[in-house]
Predict the 3D structure of the following.
Amino acid sequence: MRRGSTSTVRYRRAMMLLASAGGNTVPVIAQLVQADQDTVRDVIHRFNEIGLACLDPRWAGGRPRLLTPDDEDFVIQTATTRPRKLGQPFTRWSLRKLVAYLRKVHGRVIRIGREALRTLLARRGVTFQRTKTWKESTGPDRDTKLDRIEHVIEHFPDRTFAFDEFGPLGIRPTSGSCWAEQSRPDRVPATYHRTHGVSYFHGCYSIGDVSVGHQPPPQRHEQHPHGPEVDPGRRPDGAPIYVILDNLSAHKGAKIRRWAKNNKVELCFTPTQASWANPIEAHFGPLRQFTLANSHHPNHTVQTRELHRYLRWRNANARHPDVLAAQRRERARIRSEKGIRWGGRPLTLAAA
C-alpha cells in the first residue's frame, strides 16, 4: 500500500487490518489511525466477509437527486424567461424570487435552495449579465434585401463591393490606449475651440480580394463615388457589378441610378434600420481604433493622410493576425449590439 500513489482511505483501511492481524484491540487501532471505533469494527467485519476487496469502499450515492433532468431544464427555461411573461410584477429574477416562484408554479413544484440554484445556473452557463439593446429592421422587404445581399456575397464575391460613409470626423484629441510605463499613461492635450468643422470618410470594401479602398468625401450627388467620374464602369466581360450600400438619400440620386443602369451596376440596398448588413461595417472599428483613438491630428489633411496610410498597410497585410483579430472583435461587437449574427456569416437566411 505504500508503493506508488494511493488514496488515504485505502491506506488507513490497510493499517486497520494490519494492526488487527497483530492482535491489537479495536480502541488501540482506532487511536492509531484516528478513526471511530465503529468504523474499525465495520472494516474488520467487511474483511471477514469479502477479504481484501474491503480496501475499496463502495460509497453510497448519497441522497437521491431532488431534480430530474427535465426539472433542471425547466429551471433554466424559467430563469432565462422575463418574469413579466410569467405574470410576475418585476423585470428580472433574483435568486430568492426565482426560488419562491419555482415552489409555487402551477402544476409543477420544484424545491431548490438558493445555493443549489446558483450552482445549477453556473453549470448550465447561465450568468447574471447587463441587458444590451439591439436593432431590428422594420422594413416590409427586409427578408428580400437580406437574401439578395447574402446571395451576391456568396456567389459573386469577385464583383461585389460594399460602400459606406464613416464619420463625422472632427479635429480633436481622442483618447485611446497604448503601452506605457506603469502609472505614467500617455496623455493627449485638451481642446476647447474646434474650428475645423467635420468631414466624412467614404470607404469601399472589395469582397473578393478583401481590400478596403477610399474616396474623398462628396458634397453633392454629382460628386458621389458612385458617379462615372470615379467608378470604373463596365467590366470587360460585360458581367454585372454589385454594390452593397445603405438607404442614405445621397445613394439614390437620379444621376447615380442612371449611371448604374448604363454600366450594369446593381445597387443592393440594406433594409431599413439594418445598416449592419453591410460587410464594410466590420472594418470601420479597426479604422477607428488604429488611426483615430489615441490621436491628436492638427487638421483634416493630416487626418485623411493617416487614414490612407493605415488602409495601405491594411491592404498589404490583409491576413495579419492583428487585422483578423480586430475584425473578429468588431464582428462580435456588431452581433452583440445589433442582435444579429452576421459577421463571419453564421447567419442563415432563407433561399433567395
Observations:
- The CA atoms of residues 169 and 199 lie 5 Å apart.
- Confidence is low (pLDDT under 50) at residues 217-230, 337-352.
